[in-house]
């Protein structure tokens, strides 16, 4: 075999190996980003399901106008009939409070933008949802679709939720958002 | 060199396969996540559809009970509707399924006003004597008993005293039926009953319509309705809304509510109101057969048969008892609903919606 063949083969092999390393890095980066996106999306779905589960029960068996006791741009307290024993039926009435913590509460995560979303049922201790919630915005509408700040007038609630990955990749946080206007039947 | 090239190429292929599989797996998870959210939403929509179809059935037919279901290409819904015992409510349980997701909705519907969940509903104390029979079991249009869905015998905001050989029967809140008996089950009566906003002070409030509605319907004469201030102006048999407005402390010594003519009996139906502004108009000595709802300030001595409900809204009965003879009061959701339909346009109201 001529020396030229050996050198040529080595060059071709080198090029192939470099291409392979580049491709691997690229695919690996893409896979990692996808994994972060999926994880963030799953976190969003989890929080969204929890919010929908509770908000649709708002005002169950409550006197009209008294179901919501406090409202804020990032918090709400309301009466709801929730299934505490998992039998598919309501077990009495409880107050449920959602409120967003400051970012400092979630300082244990690398993401500086995320908060804890606290969910409190009745007199129980607040349960912190630590899934990278970066915004939880609430707007309240009366029966005519006008914005209202009076809890007794609220007929529908616009929920805006944004979740970011708690860990960055390449100094970037994956993000997913959900918005919905919920009109609980019992309000 | 040839072997090395083959190993190199195969290695690359294997590495690429793993990377591709990993990427595909992430994509599948993303798609599955989106699908799950979509399926949950569709299952909820299907459950709502089932509940709404059942609600429509109740609106069309207040006595409606039963099951419905529908299957679509990728999902289905089913709903059951049943009357809640010792209550004026019906309950709908609707389930929707789409893909792997399922959603359930429970709706409680007030089919007719809450004051009609017993054979006798009274603001004052209730005394029964003689052989009066008060039966809260649910009697259908043929006066057959529909099991396990009736109401209480007597409900009062004060005390209930059974005396003589009077008997109470009915359906308790667990759906258990009891035939009338002197040794009645205590779950068939409710003493010191509480109502949100207090007990209604007017017949209109009992029925759940605006003040003056019953009187206006009676004065219109529609469907055989009658309005009178003199009992002699009331014609039997009764139909539609009959409104007798008596003077202060007035008493209507009622005629036989069954009109006999040419060998045929014509019973009375509808809503009968005996009331005045002082809340002391008395309906005395009920005889014959009446089917529907009687609302009076004071009911004194039931000797006939009332199928539906009697509601007493006055404070102080003048007689010593509501019945001391052979009278019978049968609870009937059918005749209550018949009396409240038509001009009163009593439509079901959603009490609660749980999902």
Helix/strand layout:
The complex is a heterodimer of chains A (187) and B (355).
Chain A: H1 3-55, E1 68-71, E2 75-81, E3 93-100, E4 115-121, E5 127-141, E6 156-164, E7 175-182
Antiparallel strand pairs in A: 1-2, 2-3, 3-4, 4-5, 5-6, 6-7
Chain B: H1 2-60, E1 66-71, E2 75-83, E3 89-98, E4 101-110, E5 118-122, E6 126-128, E7 133-135, E8 138-139, E9 145-146, E10 152-156, E11 160-162, E12 167-171, E13 177-181, E14 189-190, H2 203-207, H3 213-220, E15 226-228, E16 241-245, E17 251-253, E18 259-261, E19 264-266, E20 268-275, E21 282-286, E22 289-296, E23 298-302, E24 305-312, E25 328-331, H4 333-340, E26 349-354
Parallel strand pairs in B: 5-10, 5-24, 6-11, 7-12, 7-25, 10-14, 15-16, 16-20, 17-21, 20-22, 21-23, 22-24, 24-25
Antiparallel strand pairs in B: 1-2, 2-3, 3-4, 4-26, 8-9, 12-13, 18-19
Shape of chain B: elongated
Following the backbone from N to C, one meets helices and strands of chain B in this order, namely: HEEEEEEEEEEEEEEHHEEEEEEEEEEEHE
Note the overall shape of chain A.
elongated
Q: How big a fraction of the residues of chain B is strand?
A: 35-45%
Described by its quaternary structure, the protein is heterodimer
* Tally of discrete structural domains of chain B: 2
Give the biggest sheet of chain A: 7 strands, antiparallel
Q: Which percent bin holds the helix content of chain B?
A: 10-25%
What number of structural domains do the residues of chain A give?
Answer: 1
């Amino acid at each position: 075999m001529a020396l030229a063949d050996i050198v040529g083969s080595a060059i071709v092999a080198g090029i192939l190996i470099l291409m392979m390393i580049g491709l691997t890095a690229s695919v690996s980066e893409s896979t990692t980003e996808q994994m972060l996106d999926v994880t963030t999306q799953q976190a969003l779905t989890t929080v969204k399901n929890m919010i929908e589960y509770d908000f649709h029960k708002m005002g169950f068996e409550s006197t009209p106008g008294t179901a919501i006791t406090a409202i804020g741009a990032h918090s709400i307290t309301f009466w709801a009939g929730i299934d505490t024993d998992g039998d598919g039926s309501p077990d009495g009435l409880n107050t449920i409070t959602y409120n967003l913590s400051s970012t400092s509460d979630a300082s244990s995560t690398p993401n500086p933008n995320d908060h804890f979303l606290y969910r409190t049922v009745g007199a129980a201790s607040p349960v912190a949802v630590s899934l990278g919630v970066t915004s939880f915005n609430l707007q309240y509408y009366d029966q005519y679709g006008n914005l209202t700040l009076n809890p007794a007038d609220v007929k529908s609630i616009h929920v805006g939720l944004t979740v970011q990955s708690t860990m960055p990749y390449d100094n970037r946080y994956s993000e997913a958002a959900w918005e919905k206007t919920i009109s609980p039947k019992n309000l | 060199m040839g072997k090395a090239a083959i190993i190199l190429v195969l290695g690359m292929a294997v590495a690429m396969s793993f990377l591709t599989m990993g990427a595909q797996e992430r994509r599948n998870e993303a798609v599955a996540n989106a699908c799950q959210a979509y399926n949950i939403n569709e299952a909820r929509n299907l459950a709502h559809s089932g509940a709404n179809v059942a609600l429509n059935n109740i609106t069309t037919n207040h006595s409606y009970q039963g099951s419905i279901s529908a299957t679509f290409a990728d999902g289905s819904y089913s709903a059951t509707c049943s009357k809640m015992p010792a209550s004026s409510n019906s309950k709908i349980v609707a389930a929707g399924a789409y893909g792997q997701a399922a959603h359930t909705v429970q709706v409680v519907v007030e089919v007719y006003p809450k004051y009609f969940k017993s054979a006798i509903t009274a603001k004052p104390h209730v005394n029964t004597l003689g052989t009066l029979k008060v039966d809260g079991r649910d009697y259908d249009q043929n006066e057959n008993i529909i099991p396990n869905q009736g109401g209480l015998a007597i409900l009062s905001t004060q005390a209930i005293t059974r005396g003589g050989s009077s008997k109470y029967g009915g359906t308790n809140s667990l759906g258990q039926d009891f035939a009338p008996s002197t040794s009645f089950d205590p779950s068939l009566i409710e003493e010191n009953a509480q109502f949100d906003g207090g007990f209604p002070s007017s017949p209109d409030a009992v029925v759940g319509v605006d003040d003056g509605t019953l009187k206006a319907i009676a004065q219109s004469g529609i469907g055989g309705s009658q309005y009178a201030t003199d009992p002699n102006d009331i014609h039997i048999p009764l139909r539609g809304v009959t409104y007798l407005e008596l003077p202060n402390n007035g008493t209507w010594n009622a005629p036989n509510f069954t009109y006999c003519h040419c060998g045929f009996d014509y019973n009375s139906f509808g809503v009968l109101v005996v009331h005045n502004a002082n809340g002391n108009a008395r309906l005395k000595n009920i005889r014959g057969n009446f089917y529907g709802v009687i609302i009076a300030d004071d009911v004194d001595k039931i000797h006939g048969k009332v199928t539906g409900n009697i509601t007493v809204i006055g404070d102080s009965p003048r007689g010593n008892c509501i019945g001391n003879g052979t009278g019978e009061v049968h609870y009937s959701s059918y005749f209550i609903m018949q009396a409240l339909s038509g001009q009163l346009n009593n439509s079901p109201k959603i009490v609660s919606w749980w999902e």
